[in-house]
Design goal:
- There is one protein chain.
- By secondary structure, this protein is mainly alpha-helical.
- The chain is built from 5 helices and 2 strands, in the order E-E-H-H-H-H-H.
- It has one domain.
């Protein structure tokens, strides 16, 4: 299954199965946090939880979702993502 982001990138979920996040994939992955579809933002949060991604850019995106996303379920998953990464937010 492939999802085309609004910016024209294609995100292949194979990286999720393998558990690898490369710098090139990270750029496309970061765009998913700003996607217009809640399901894409949801999957990005779940990926952070499962892969325990501690990149500063990803943590900033998760924090932004917690503060600004209109969907409560996405906010909850963003909080979960931060918890799995052992991050404390003020």
């Amino acid at each position: 299954m492939r999802h085309s982001c609004e910016t024209g990138c294609a995100v292949d979920p194979t990286w999720f199965v393998v558990g690898i996040m490369t710098a090139k994939l990270l750029v496309a992955f970061l765009r998913c946090f700003d996607d217009e579809f809640a399901e894409v933002r949801t999957e990005a949060c779940i990926a952070c939880s499962r892969l325990r991604i501690r990149d500063d850019q990803v943590l900033t995106k998760l924090t932004s979702l917690i503060r600004n996303d209109p969907i409560d379920h996405v906010k909850a998953l963003a909080i979960q993502g931060l918890c799995y990464c052992s991050v404390v937010v003020d």
